[in-house]
């Protein structure tokens, strides 16, 4: 009897998880469908670009700078075990462009942007602003979700590109000032070993992560519960789900892009 | 004319509306009264299509609200929300002129701003208010801005959701008078939901009492005090004893 109850509980949880995945998927498809149908709210799009992209630059830049520096130190220490210290510039560049730039950038944007989108839209929901939008003949998905999803999908790759550059620069600073590399040689090594696809794959990942961040922020905001507790829970769920999805998507995209 | 026929709505096991029948004639002001949690807001949201009824029909001028073209249908309505529901990110004038800045009713920006300032003046707010943000306004001013937004596009039908909730009695009286004046001069059909009896007496031509998911009584406001309906008598006199169960 207790085994049956256990299985029933497990089954309920699996069904609930599948239903949640289905709801998010339908929400994402609806958001994308609004990209193809007018009206388009350009002012809201540019505001979202400003908030999601431009205002995230300092945070992403600082993260990349310190990560690039730490990466150079680690690779130097690890490489010294088999006399391969010279690989520092190339591994820093490849590591930043392929993995750390997009993943850390995506996670930092998830922390900053998914939370703020969920809190803003959640508050709009509990104060009836979403209902007010509808009564004013404005589709909330079109006015709130579509500009944010499009802005995040286009902005995060730019943030990743900037983050990659700053990360590589962080590695350069540590390599030249702490580890004794020659500046010109460091840059030459970086250029020689970095390929176009290393950078492009990171930018594609950035676009996917931006899409995830905005969709999860909007979804949890639109489905926020009542009151401050409901908005708080929506904010937390947006950050957690966006972060986990970014890491899972990163693995999948790495398999797709780089599996032999 | 707005006609509701056998409207049912449940949320899970909670049967909120259990067959609402109601007619609101064109140009009349109907106030729905009833206790908290009796489904007044749900009823209003069903008419606007924000909540979909489980069964029954809602018609506006004979056209089914569920199948009418959404934009054209909603363009006929203005709504004052309980908490104002002003958009925090927009200045007051853009809140008021929201419908005039986008969609089928779009006007040039300068013209929309002029209309917004005119409507703000109509609800007793100075033009300087136009560039403030909603967070900088008092509760009474937010209600006035909400009212200005509701009438900005000259709607044929205006809904008021608890228009005086959270206001002091004097400000509540001012808002009630404003609503009455505006509805009369626009010739609009109005529907308000409230449990504030001063609002009922100031705004209503007709009153309907919602209880247990159905309209228990409806009639002209002039007959409300004299009716023998025990639900209405208990409600308007605020008695704890009567057919409406009061939780102590």
Would you kindly provide a written description of the structure presented here, covering whatever features stand out?
The complex is a heterodimer of chains A (260) and B (248). With 260 residues, chain A is mainly alpha-helical. Chain A has one domain (2-258). Chain A has nine helices and no strands. Chain A has helices spanning 2-33, 42-53, 57-79, 88-126, 129-135, 140-177, 183-193, 196-222, 227-258. Chain A starts with a helix and ends with a helix. In chain B, the strands form two sheets. Chain B has a six-stranded mixed beta sheet with strand order 6-7-8-3-9-10, sandwiched between helices. A four-stranded antiparallel beta sheet of chain B has the order 2-1-4-5, covered by helices on one side. With 248 residues, chain B is of the alpha/beta class. Chain B contains eight helices and ten strands. Chain B is globular. The model of chain B has no long low-confidence stretch (mean pLDDT 90). The longest helix of chain B has 18 residues, at 169-186. Chain A binds chain B through residues 39, 41, 123-124, 127-129, 131-132, 134-138, and chain B through 45, 48-50, 70-71, 74-75, 77-79, 81-83, 85-88, 98-99, 102-105, 149.
Layout of strands and helices, then pairs:
The complex is a heterodimer of chains A (260) and B (248).
Chain A lengths: L1 H32 L8 H12 L3 H23 L8 H39 L2 H7 L4 H38 L5 H11 L2 H27 L4 H32 L2
Helix pairs in contact in A: 2-6, 3-4, 3-6, 4-6, 4-7, 4-8, 4-9, 6-7, 6-8, 8-9
Chain B lengths: L1 E10 L2 E11 L4 E5 L6 H9 L6 E6 L2 E2 L5 H5 L2 E4 L11 H5 L12 H14 L16 H13 L5 E5 L7 H18 L2 E6 L2 H7 L2 E6 L2 E7 L9 H7 L12
Parallel strand pairs in B: 3-8, 3-9, 6-7, 7-8
Antiparallel strand pairs in B: 1-2, 1-4, 4-5, 9-10
Helix pairs in contact in B: 4-5, 5-6, 6-7
């Amino acid at each position: 009897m207790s085994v049956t109850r256990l299985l029933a509980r497990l089954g309920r949880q699996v069904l609930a998880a599948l239903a949640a995945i289905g709801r998010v998927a339908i929400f994402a498809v609806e958001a994308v469908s609004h990209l193809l149908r007018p009206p388009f709210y350009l002012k809201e799009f540019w505001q979202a670009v400003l908030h999601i992209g431009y205002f995230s630059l300092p945070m992403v830049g600082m993260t990349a700078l310190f990560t690039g520096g730490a990466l150079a130190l680690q690779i130097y220490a690890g490489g010294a075990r088999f006399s391969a210290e010279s690989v520092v510039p190339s591994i820093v560049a490849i590591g930043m462009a392929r993995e750390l730039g997009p993943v850390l950038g995506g996670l930092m944007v998830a922390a900053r942007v998914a939370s703020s989108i969920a809190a803003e839209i959640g508050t709009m929901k509990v104060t009836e602003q979403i209902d007010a939008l509808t009564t004013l003949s404005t589709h909330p998905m079109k006015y709130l979700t579509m500009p944010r999803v499009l802005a995040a999908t286009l902005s995060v790759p730019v943030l990743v590109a900037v983050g990659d550059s700053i990360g590589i620069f962080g590695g350069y600073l540590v390599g030249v000032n702490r580890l004794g590399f020659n500046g010109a040689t460091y840059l030459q090594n970086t250029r020689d070993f970095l390929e176009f696809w290393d950078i492009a794959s990171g930018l594609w990942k950035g676009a996917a992560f931006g899409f995830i961040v905005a969709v999860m922020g909007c979804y949890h905001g639109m489905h926020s519960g009542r009151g401050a507790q409901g908005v708080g829970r929506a904010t937390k769920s947006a950050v957690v789900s966006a972060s986990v999805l970014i890491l899972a998507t990163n693995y999948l995209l790495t398999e797709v892009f780089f599996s032999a | 004319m707005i006609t509701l026929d056998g409207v049912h709505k449940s949320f899970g096991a909670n049967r909120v509306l259990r067959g609402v029948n109601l007619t609101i004639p064109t140009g009349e002001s109907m106030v729905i009264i009833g206790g908290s949690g009796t489904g007044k807001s749900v009823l209003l949201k069903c008419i606007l299509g924000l909540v979909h009824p489980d069964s029954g029909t809602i018609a506006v001028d004979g056209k089914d609200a569920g199948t009418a073209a959404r934009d054209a249908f909603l363009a006929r309505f203005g709504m004052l929300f309980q908490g104002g529901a002003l958009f925090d990110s927009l200045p007051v004038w853009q809140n008021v002129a929201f419908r005039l800045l986008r969609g089928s009713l779009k006007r040039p920006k300068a013209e929309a701003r002029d209309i917004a300032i005119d409507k703000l003046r109509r609800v007793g707010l100075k033009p300087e208010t136009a560039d403030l943000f909603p967070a900088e306004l008092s509760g009474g001013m937010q209600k006035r801005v909400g009212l200005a937004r509701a009438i900005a596009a000259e709607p044929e039908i205006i809904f008021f959701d608890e228009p005086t909730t959270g206001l002091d009695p004097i400000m509540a009286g001012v808002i009630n008078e404003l609503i009455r004046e505006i509805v009369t001069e626009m010739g609009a059909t109005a529907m308000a939901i409230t449990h504030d009896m001063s609002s009922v007496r100031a705004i209503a031509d007709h009153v309907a009492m919602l209880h247990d998911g159905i309209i228990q009584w409806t009639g002209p406001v002039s007959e409300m005090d004299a009716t023998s309906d025990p639900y209405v008598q208990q409600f308007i006199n605020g008695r704890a004893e009567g057919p409406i169960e009061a939780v102590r």
